[in-house]
Design goal:
The chain has seven helices and five strands, in the order βααβααβααβαβ. The protein has 149 residues and is mainly alpha-helical. The strands form two sheets. The chain has a three-stranded parallel sheet. A two-stranded parallel sheet has the order 2-3. β4, α7 and β5 form a beta-alpha-beta unit. It starts with 6 loop residues before the first strand and ends with a strand.
Length: 149
């Protein structure tokens, strides 16, 4: 069985664990099959918090659901379902710039998507979890194994 620390999960994929989205059930099932903590960068944690808050702003979730989702996220870090992972940001940003020059003209990837692929490479995580097609194409182009639960 694979362990969670072998994967880089894009925060938009992880967000499906806290919001009711079409891929939420598949993501929950995938996560339940893994043991150990998933690595999440500081930037990834901010994206998760903001994604949940943005759902409240857009009125996709209630204020009560916002509070519950943020508490669940905090609990996942506190209980070890996630591991806060440090990253050398200067190196990750340089790599992201290089990936953008090389791949974005053909793939049309967005800067945050490129940054997440670069982060996975910098952390030497070879399995990349994403539901975003352009991000998946970039991850494959740089030799990552893409998982779309």
């Amino acid at each position: 069985m694979a362990t969670a620390d072998e994967f880089y999960a894009d925060p938009s994929a992880l967000l499906k664990l806290y919001l009711n989205e079409p891929e939420s059930r598949a993501m929950t099932t995938w996560r339940a099959k893994l043991s150990g903590p998933l690595p999440v960068t500081h930037h990834g944690r901010v994206e998760l918090i903001n994604g949940i808050a943005l759902a409240a702003h857009r009125r996709f979730i209630s204020a009560t659901a916002l509070t519950a989702a943020l508490a669940a996220l905090d609990d996942d870090f506190e209980t070890g379902r996630y591991r806060q992972t440090d990253l050398l940001w200067r190196s990750a940003l340089k790599r992201a710039g290089d990936l953008s020059r090389q791949h974005t003209p053909a793939l049309g990837t967005r800067s945050l998507d490129v940054l997440h692929v670069a982060s996975a490479l910098e952390l030497n995580l070879r399995r990349f979890v994403s539901f975003d097609e352009r991000q998946q194409k970039l991850a494959r182009a740089v030799g990552l194994k893409v998982i779309s639960p």
